[in-house]
């Protein structure tokens, strides 16, 4: 007769409450008291002025060349409009290129930007950390598989004594019953404390969910590591982040750079490759100039609980949704409020931090619409009292990212209008596109595609990293295919963002629905009605052939992307095409594994992005003096 396994009683659903006050902040008026500690890397102001100066040089050089070319026969009204749109849009692209170039120089030189080693992270823990996973009507099996993987990984990394895990549900009552059953089964065998709580009233969405936990349980935990429902982190990364917080008492928040995991559809594999190939360069550049005023992306980040409680109680914005009410993109505002109190906010490029990506372009657009509404709310907060200048810049960048799409469309329409005037009015000689200097065209191509070329060079520069991407030929082939797909996707995304913006301006707020994370192929017939605007605009651009051949050729990439939008959406939503691409070595990224219980499963987490050090082994170098003082 087989002996029964030893019985382990189910842990309580929640620990004893430890209330922590989290007052609502005043965004305007007198700024709060600020504890100023030295957290900034050396020479940060020089770095930022260099970034601004290089961006300005590129923007002014290009705009001056275009202005001189337009002025040869005098500027007309439409050419003035063209310049008004060209200057900020070109400068926007230049800013991203300069930041990425700086990141590329950092990585290609072999440096791990901004970091110094940290020994024995688990042995340095002395305070408790809570891992928080907010969920809202998610796939229960998938959520708790991720929870199980992380719980066992934390134990293997030596953090079980100091780290508890909370699943914080905003799900419906029926969905909550399934979650509670899954929690009870896992909690009985988990090697760390695993708790579950479901709110009866979903007030203020995810920020309200986190704030409710802080006010009830935050007093027991020095740190809280915030996840999304699709997040996965290795035990080494979680314990390593907690050890950094122990060693650096001036840090209020550490944001990791998550890579994409569990990619199945062609769209997900394409985005995963782009994230792995180009993401480290962009991240290294962002880290270089943001310093102690980095950003918060709302997940895969560790936060000092008391700092968050004293700094980040979010008020409602005056007025109705979509631009009033609850602050939707709360994370960027919270990082700004932490810095306002004097806490350091750093970004760290460590491995072992992962998230899933929307499976289709449609799901990506739905998420992007929510982000747009939240980021446009930030325009009302840029002038909030006491914010650091870099925090204001982050808010401006986030909001302006969604204003570039209408800007590009208006620039294109103004160009077509100028050509039409030249053809039928007789008062303007020549085609405006023919007058653009060749140097400006070459510079524009470099700014747009340079970061992708730098990504390829970075992959090829290291033999081990190149092998992880499938070797030089497969890496090159993947970059070329990604370049074509991203070119086709750009006008599709432009129209989707403009449609979303018009909806918000008409007062239609985004809905808070459970995010689709399952791969579901979209048929061409199903997507065609949603692509009417894309096809009509594509036909309009194609119609410029009768107006002017040069203009039609300039617009050809946009025309093809818009007319092919339904096929792009449908084909990239397919999981079988994603698997076919993987079999052919297309969009290959470094392979990773992580245990779920005793089983080994592919890809959910691992050693980190190619070229970065092991998880939990790095610290922001701006804190080196503090480490010696407090360590």
Notes on the structure:
The protein has helices spanning 44-70, 77-108, 140-156, 173-187, 205-217, 235-247, 266-290, 305-311, 330-340, 361-377, 389-400, 404-424, 432-435, 438-460, 463-468, 472-505, 524-527, 532-542, 549-554, 556-563, 565-572, 575-583, 624-630; strands spanning 115-117, 129-135, 163-169, 194-198, 223-226, 231-233, 251-256, 259-260, 301-304, 344-348, 353-355, 593-596, 599-602, 618-620. It is α/β, with parallel strands linked by helices. The strands form four sheets. It has a seven-stranded mixed β-sheet with strand order 4-3-2-5-9-7-10, with helices on both faces. It has a three-stranded mixed β-sheet with strand order 6-11-8. Strand 12 and strand 13 (599-602) form a beta hairpin. Helix 2 packs across helix 7 (266-290), helix 3 (140-156) packs parallel to helix 4 (173-187) and helix 10 (361-377) crosses helix 16. The longest helix is centred in the C-terminal third of the chain and has 34 residues, at 472-505. It starts with 43 loop residues before the first helix and ends with a helix. Mean pLDDT is 88; it is low at 1-9, 596-619 and 621-631.
Notable characteristics:
14 strands; disordered N terminus; globular; 10% strand; 631 residues
The DSSP helix count reads: 23
Please estimate the helix content: 40-55%
Global morphology = globular
As laid out across the biggest beta sheet, the strand order is 4-3-2-5-9-7-10
- Total DSSP E strands: 14
**Based on the structure, what is the oligomeric state of the protein chains?**
single chain
**Class per helix and strand makeup:** alpha/beta
Q: Beta-strand level of the residues, as a percent range?
A: 5-15%
Separation, N- and C-terminal Cα atoms: 56 Å
Please state the average pLDDT score: 88
Rounded Rg: 25 Å
Main β-sheet: number of strands, strand sense, barrel status?
7 strands, mixed
Point out poorly predicted stretches: 1-9, 596-619, 621-631
């Amino acid at each position: 007769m087989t002996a029964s396994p030893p019985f382990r009683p189910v842990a309580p659903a929640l620990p004893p409450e430890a209330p922590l006050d989290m007052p609502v902040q005043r965004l305007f008026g007198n700024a709060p008291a600020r504890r100023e500690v030295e957290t900034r890397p050396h020479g940060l102001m020089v770095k930022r002025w260099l970034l601004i100066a290089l961006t300005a040089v590129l923007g002014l050089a290009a705009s001056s060349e275009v202005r001189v070319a337009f002025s040869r026969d005098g500027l007309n009204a439409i050419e003035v409009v063209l310049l008004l749109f060209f200057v900020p849009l070109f400068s926007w692209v230049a800013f991203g290129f300069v930041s990425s170039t700086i990141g590329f120089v950092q990585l290609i030189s072999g440096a791990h930007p901004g970091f110094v080693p940290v020994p024995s992270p688990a042995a340095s823990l002395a305070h408790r950390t809570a891992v928080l996973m907010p969920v809202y009507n998610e796939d229960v099996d998938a959520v708790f598989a991720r929870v199980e993987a992380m719980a066992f990984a934390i134990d293997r990394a030596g953090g079980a004594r100091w780290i508890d895990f909370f699943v914080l549900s905003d799900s419906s009552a029926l969905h909550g019953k399934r979650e509670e059953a899954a929690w009870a089964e896992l909690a009985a065998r988990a090697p760390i404390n695993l708790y579950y709580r479901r709110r009866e009233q979903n007030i203020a969405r995810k920020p309200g969910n986190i704030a409710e936990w802080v006010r009830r349980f935050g007093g027991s935990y020095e740190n809280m590591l915030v996840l999304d429902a699709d997040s996965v982190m290795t035990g080494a990364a979680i314990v390593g982040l907690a050890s950094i917080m122990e060693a650096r008492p001036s840090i209020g928040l550490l944001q990791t750079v998550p890579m994409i995991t569990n990619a199945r559809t062609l769209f997900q594999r394409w985005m995963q490759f782009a994230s792995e190939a180009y993401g480290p360069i962009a991240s290294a550049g962002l880290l270089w100039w943001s310093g102690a005023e980095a950003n918060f992306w709302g997940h895969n980040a560790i936060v000092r609980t008391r700092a968050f409680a004293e700094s980040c109680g979010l008020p409602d914005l005056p007025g109705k949704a979509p631009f009033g009410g609850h602050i939707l993109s709360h994370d960027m505002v919270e990082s700004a409020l932490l810095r306002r109190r004097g806490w350091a906010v750093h970004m760290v490029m460590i491995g072992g931090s992962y998230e899933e990506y929307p499976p289709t372009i449609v799901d990506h657009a739905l998420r992007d619409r929510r982000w747009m509404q939240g980021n446009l709310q930030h325009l009302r907060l840029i002038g909030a009292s006491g914010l650091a200048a870099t925090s204001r810049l982050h808010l401006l960048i986030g909001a302006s990212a969604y204003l570039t799409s209408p800007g590009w469309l208006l620039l294109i329409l103004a160009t077509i209008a100028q050509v039409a005037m030249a053809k039928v009015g007789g008062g303007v000689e020549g085609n405006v596109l023919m007058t653009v200097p060749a140097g400006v065209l070459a510079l524009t191509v470099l700014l747009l595609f340079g970061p992708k070329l730098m990504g390829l060079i970075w992959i090829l520069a290291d033999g081990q990293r190149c092998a992880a991407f499938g070797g030089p030929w497969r890496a090159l082939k993947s970059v070329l295919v990604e370049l074509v797909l991203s070119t086709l996707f750009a006008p599709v995304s432009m129209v989707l963002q403009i449609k979303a913006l018009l909806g918000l301006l008409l007062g239609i707020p985004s809905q808070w629905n459970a995010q689709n994370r399952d791969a579901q192929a979209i048929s061409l017939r199903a997507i065609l009605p949603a692509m009417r605007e894309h096809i009509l605009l594509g036909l309009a651009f194609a119609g410029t052939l009768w107006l002017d051949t040069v203009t039609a050729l300039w617009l050809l990439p946009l025309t093809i992307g818009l007319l092919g939008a339904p096929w792009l959406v449908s084909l990239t939503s397919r999981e079988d095409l994603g698997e076919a691409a993987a079999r052919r070595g297309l969009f290959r990224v470094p392979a990773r594994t992580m245990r779920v219980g005793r089983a080994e499963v592919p890809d959910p987490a691992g050693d980190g992005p190619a070229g970065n050090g092991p998880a939990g082994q790095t610290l922001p170098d701006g804190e080196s003096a503090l480490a010696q003082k407090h360590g």
